[in-house]
Amino acid sequence: MDRRRFFQLFTLNNKHIRPPYNIDESLFKECMECDMPCVKVCEESIIHITEDHTPYLNFDNSGCTFCTNCAKVCEKGVLNQHLEAKINSIALINKELCIAWNMTLCSSCTDVCYPKSITFSRMLNPQIDQNTCNGCGLCKNICPLSAITIEYKK
To answer: Which CATH number is 89-152's, of 3.30.420.10, 3.40.50.2300, 3.40.50.10800, 3.30.70.20?
Structure first.
């Protein structure tokens, strides 16, 4: 292990949205010495590698389907397919951009929301229940005006 990697063990950035099936952010330091098979098996190609050589999720083109492939190939035990299928992120709706909040019928986000965390009041005004949202990011990419963002959640 080179000097840079050694010091990165102590400065692991915990502001990244991590793959599902983990419960301890500190375990991701184990990934620094891994070949990252999780990146190769991700069906949606959303697992990327940070500067400190740890995996994070990028929802720019897709969301997580919780296929468990990343956990099945995790050689270091950082991801475990028997843990809860939840991601350390939250979905947020920008009401100014959302066409449903601007009096046009649209239900794209709720159609792809598996836990049914997105609900509407009066056929408009979508709301995201943060208690049931699993952070998958699928709603972000289906939104026709990019009114949904996915952000890190502690």
So the answer is: 3.30.70.20
Which pLDDT band, with edges at 50, 70 and 90, does 3 fall under? Answer: low
Instruction: Quote helix, strand, coil % in the chain, to nearest 5.
Output: 25, 15, 60
Residue 14 three-state SS: coil
Q: Tell me: the pLDDT tens digits for 12-66?
A: 445 899 999 998 989 999 999 999 999 999 999 999 999 989 999 999 999 999 9
For residue 88, CA distances in Å to 35, 84, 96 come to: 23, 11, 25
> Which H/E stretch holds residue 111?
helix 108-112
